[in-house]
């Protein structure tokens, strides 16, 4: 799998249930949210903007994805201006490893460059060094519509954070109507 394959497989809306463990026991960020993932083609102007901000030639970008989060119960449309844009810069033609350029990081809201690779087991690993934190995220698909993400963050003062997320693809109203119609036709 390449990063662009991973982005394409991830495209859509995901219901995320997360458990967060802060080792300092101060806060609890566990909860539910929706994650909107959209593939961004290499020709999209956002790719050039992110690359140029990191001093990278946009011509070597394979493409990318935008990620938008919203509370699970929120009924408003997510704001695309608040989306994180990730750009895939593969190491070679296999696309099994490379760099991810982000216009803003997850831990610190600054532009950041991460390293990624896919293991033989197809688990994606992303390592990120921020100004005062280090993060690692691992993600894999159980099925096409269910995936798992785990992450750890080590802060400069030694405090750790661990997160476990299970994510289920949300079915659109159109897809649901098509499934209902298909099942009705099978019953006849």
Task: Supply database-style keywords.
188 residues, alpha+beta, Lipocalin, 46% strand
Describe it.
This protein has a ten-stranded antiparallel β-barrel with strand order 1-2-3-4-5-6-7-8-9-10. The longest helix is centred in the C-terminal third of the chain and has 15 residues, at 173-187. Strand 1 and strand 2 form a beta hairpin. It is built from three helices and ten strands, in the order H-E-E-H-E-E-E-E-E-E-E-E-H. The protein has helices at 3-10, 45-53, 173-187; strands spanning 12-22, 31-40, 63-71, 84-90, 97-102, 112-118, 124-129, 133-143, 146-155, 160-169. The chain has 188 residues and is an alpha+beta fold. It has one domain (3-187): Beta Barrel (Lipocalin), CATH 2.40.128.20. The mean pLDDT is 88.
Reconstruct the topology from this structure:
Layout: H1 3-10, E1 12-22, E2 31-40, H2 45-53, E3 63-71, E4 84-90, E5 97-102, E6 112-118, E7 124-129, E8 133-143, E9 146-155, E10 160-169, H3 173-187
Antiparallel strand pairs: 1-2, 1-10, 2-3, 3-4, 4-5, 5-6, 6-7, 7-8, 8-9, 9-10
Known CATH architecture: Beta Barrel
State which percent range the strand residues make up.
over 45%
What is the β-strand count?
Answer: 10
Main pleated-sheet profile? 10 strands, antiparallel, barrel
Straight-line N-to-C gap: 41 Å
Rg from C-alpha positions?
A: 18 Å
Could you give the order of strands across the largest sheet? 1-2-3-4-5-6-7-8-9-10
3D shape: globular
Helix content: 10-25%
Number of domains: 1
Q: By CATH's scheme, which homologous superfamily applies?
A: Calycin beta-barrel core domain
Q: Which structural class matches the secondary elements?
A: alpha+beta
What is the N-to-C order of secondary-structure elements (H for helix, E for strand)?
Answer: HEEHEEEEEEEEH
Number of helices: 3
Look up the CATH topology. Answer: Lipocalin
Mean pLDDT: 88
